């Protein structure tokens, strides 16, 4: 074997090792990102389930003292009934947003009526649900950050070369629906 052939063989072997190392490193990084996205979604799902469970108690507590504005309670009940943890992400996001809108309406009613504000269990449940709403918002943000990082990575070199081969596809963001971006109109009884 001549000296030039040995150099070419060594260069090709070095190139093959470099490609293998980059491929394995990229693969492991993307798999870790996929797991982070899955974990972030699981955290959102836990908070959604907690809110779902608390809603029943809040509706029952408010229903006991509230014989008026039944449409507000019906909206919350409908939103709670629509909760489906196995639904596709866009449907879960829409259900979550509808629940948040219904809750804002219910909380506005509670604020307008002193007899509701004076019931300790209603206040406790309202505070717990408000805490869960904040938790859901924080977890949604973390989920979307994880999805952004994953989606950006699989569209960049070298991961884009493996994405098609390994079936890596972009994940959906947890988006607010258009009606939820509008300001909420609250009417005060006169």
**Residue-averaged pLDDT:** 86
Rg for CA atoms: 26 Å
The number of helical runs is 7
Largest sheet: none
CATH superfamily: LemA-like domain
Shape: rod-shaped
**Secondary-structure content class:** mainly alpha
Q: What is the H-and-E element order?
A: HHHHHHH
Short description:
This protein is mainly α and 190 residues long.
Note down, in words, how this protein is organized.
Helix content is 79%, strand content 0%. The protein has 190 residues and is mainly α.
Main features:
190 residues, mainly alpha, de novo design (two linked rop proteins), 7 helices, rod-shaped
Give the SSE map:
Layout: H1 3-65, H2 70-81, H3 89-112, H4 114-117, H5 120-154, H6 159-166, H7 178-181
Helix pairs in contact: 1-2, 1-5, 2-3
């Amino acid at each position: 074997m001549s000296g030039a052939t040995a150099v070419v063989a060594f260069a090709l072997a070095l190139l093959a090792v470099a490609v293998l190392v980059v491929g394995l490193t990229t693969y492991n990084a993307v798999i870790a990102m996929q797991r982070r996205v899955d974990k972030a979604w699981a955290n959102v799902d836990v908070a959604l389930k907690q809110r779902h469970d608390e809603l029943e108690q809040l509706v029952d507590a408010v229903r006991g003292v509230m014989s008026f504005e039944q449409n507000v309670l019906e909206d919350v009940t409908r939103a709670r009934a629509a909760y489906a943890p196995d639904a596709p992400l866009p449907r879960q996001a829409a259900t979550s947003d509808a629940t948040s809108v219904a809750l804002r309406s219910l909380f506005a009613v509670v604020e307008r009526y002193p007899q509701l504000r004076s019931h300790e269990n209603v206040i406790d449940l309202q505070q717990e649900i408000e805490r869960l709403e904040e938790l859901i918002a924080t977890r949604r943000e973390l989920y979307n950050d994880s999805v952004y990082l994953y989606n950006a990575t699989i569209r960049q070199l070298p991961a884009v070369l493996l994405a098609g081969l390994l079936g890596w596809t972009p994940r959906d963001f947890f988006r607010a629906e258009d009606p939820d971006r509008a300001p909420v109109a609250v009417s005060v009884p006169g």
